[in-house]
């Protein structure tokens, strides 16, 4: 057992307990999905700037049809009816 590699021990565990195969598959699926989501956020988001020298302000090249994260007309964002600010003595605005 001391000389067995990690892959050999993993294979023996799967052979002894075949019920963990779906769990391993779901864990791999979740990790892969999270990695792809982070990659999408890093490459497609206007908030991330990888090239500061040639494009120091990437948010300026957005067209008026692009979706922004904040309202630009100065209006307040409508709160969800279940969210209450009653615990806070003053609204954050």
From TrEMBL:
<feature type="transmembrane region" description="Helical">
    <location>
        <begin position="20"/>
        <end position="43"/>
    </location>
</feature>
<dbReference type="Pfam" id="PF06522">
    <property type="entry name" value="B12D"/>
</dbReference>
<keyword id="KW-0812">Transmembrane</keyword>
<dbReference type="InterPro" id="IPR010530">
    <property type="entry name" value="B12D"/>
</dbReference>
<keyword id="KW-1133">Transmembrane helix</keyword>
<keyword id="KW-0472">Membrane</keyword>
<protein>
    <submittedName>
        <fullName>NDUFA4 mitochondrial complex associated like 2</fullName>
    </submittedName>
</protein>
